Amino acid sequence: MPVSLSRDGDRHWKRRTSRAEWLRFAGWLALVMLFIFTWRVMTQDTIWAFVLDAPRQAADIGSRMWPPRWSYMSALWKPLWDTINMATLGTLLAVILAVPVAFLTARNTTPSVVFVRPVALLVIVSSRSINALIWALLLVTILGPGVLAGVIAIALRSVGFIAKLLYEAIEEINIEPVEAIRATGASAPQVLAWGIWPQITPAFAGISVFRWDINIREATVLGLVGAGGIGVNLESSMNTLAWPQVTLILIVILATVIVSEWVSAKIRHALL
Amino acid sequence: MSSISRRWTPPPLIANRALRYGVYAGLCLYLLVAFSTIEFNWTRMSEGAARAGNLFAGFLRPDFTSRWDDIEAGLLESLTMTVTSTIVGIILSIPFGIGAARNIAPVPVYAFCRAFIAVARSLQEVIIAIFLVVLFGFGPFAGFLTLAFATIGFLAKLLAEDIEDCDPAPLEAIRATGAGWWQVLAYAILPQVAPRLIGLSLYRVDINFRESAVVGIVGAGGIGATLNTAMDRYEFDSAAAILLIIIGIVLACEYASGFIRAKVQ
To answer: Looking at the predicted complex, does its ipTM rise above 0.85?
Structure first.
């Protein structure tokens, strides 16, 4: 800790040296400048009349949205079922694809750190960078609208997520059981099955359930680009300005998300 | 070899045998039913195969040049949206996070903040964006508000959990000196949560960038709008270029945030 002498000879303790203080100040200043600059660039085309108008618009839409049209519920059960299926099947497909990727990525199980690991990491990053909605946008043009595009979109987005968390879990395993099993003369697949796999099973199950929960949320909007599920109804209700239906759909989505979060928390709690 | 071989098996995930097989059977049945609801439209897929080919060809020969003006404008909107929404989101998430921490906030404040966070987290960014576009008009301003709102939901929850997990000893010690609420916050809580808050904020930067690519699809500005246009025109080479740019920027963000986090923590 730096000490400075004041004019009358007292010693003052400070947390940082003057140089560090100035550097911090410069850092904060740069951040503020960056904010102002980006704000100006971002809002140069904003029509402020629309922004100022927002409270009135909100009140207007709010009055149209209430009360929700409960009778529309009968048309929502099928899309809701599709939504849940998309999330579950997408997660399952992602898990199947992610396990080999994770083993190829983890430093202690990859066949080659120089050649295989970078490729597997690239797969993980590409999958993680692109949102399920964008994958769905691509897949709908290729496969046509429907649940299938949604399932694959969910899967492609989730592979990177699951593989990343799983390979981190694999890298953190205890090496002793693995060596003990290797010492018995076990082959590589046997070491994998008896030494490594049992150690990561809880993490694996936890990650999968966690991602399933996220995927339920993602699946609710895939319909906006035509990939099936409750989003299709949301899109069509908004296009026809049927606001009471929109309210009901939002309530259903909120309820589904809350239930799935509760289920996933229960399962993870039981597992760990 | 003796004929009596005792085979060891690892303990199963669910200890109760009946429950275990019940869960497995139920899962299999559900998966079968769920799988049977998917429609495979083979004729449509074979039509799409040519497009899939074009898309893959696009990835091999991405076209950065012919739509560069659109891409540049979209990218600029996305990046400015990311920066402003992250900064505003962090600033607003701090009071919400403090309010949602049971150990320092009074009950009414706690209930309000928790409810707000739950709503902000449950609704997808895209749904919020649709509404904000209706309210605030097309363009990046709606996207900025969406991402800032989503940032509050994400950061405030994690911050609240961090504060609740704080070591109570320093809190007691600072309180024992007669410190007020603000002083407890500044000297006991902040030093404990600051490193993780910085880490999470950096993580949120790249989430916000990724999401900024999505909100454009519903009209909230950014690179997503450009991507959507490219897809609508079946310009797969331009679309591939945009996707590669997104991947590149996310990668750069991840490296940068990893570097900064290593320095801070």
So the answer is: no
